[in-house]
Design brief:
With 102 residues, this protein is mostly helical. It has a two-stranded parallel ribbon. Helix 2 packs antiparallel against helix 3 and helix 3 runs antiparallel to helix 4.
Length: 102
């Protein structure tokens, strides 16, 4: 005999693995209504990976700039926990600050 138990999940904190979220989305309603969150370690890793990919594509994007952008991202997130509007504002300001603009 096989028994299937379904639990209502309100929030899912994952590691950016699309397969788990995909399985949750395939569940019948209302079980598939889930808010996905990402953990901080995987967010940092994914941002850093995206910056290294950008560096490969854009030869003018140097290691020093990559480290500055990465540090600015981490600082913006840590200083704006619980304030999504300010976080968004600070994240959008990162590119102009890298060029020396206030």
């Amino acid at each position: 005999f096989f028994f299937f138990f379904f639990f209502r999940i309100g929030r899912f904190i994952g590691d950016e693995d699309a397969s788990t979220m995909s399985m949750i989305c395939e569940l019948p309603p209302p079980l598939n209504k889930v808010e996905k969150r990402s953990d901080w370690t995987h967010i940092k890793r994914n941002v850093t990976s995206a910056l290294y990919k950008l560096k490969k594509e854009q030869k003018s994007f140097k290691d020093k700039a990559l480290k500055r952008v990465s540090k600015s991202f981490k600082l913006a997130v840590s200083q704006n926990k619980g304030d999504p509007a300010q976080l968004q504002k600070n994240l959008r300001a990162i590119p102009s600050h890298q060029n020396g603009n206030p």
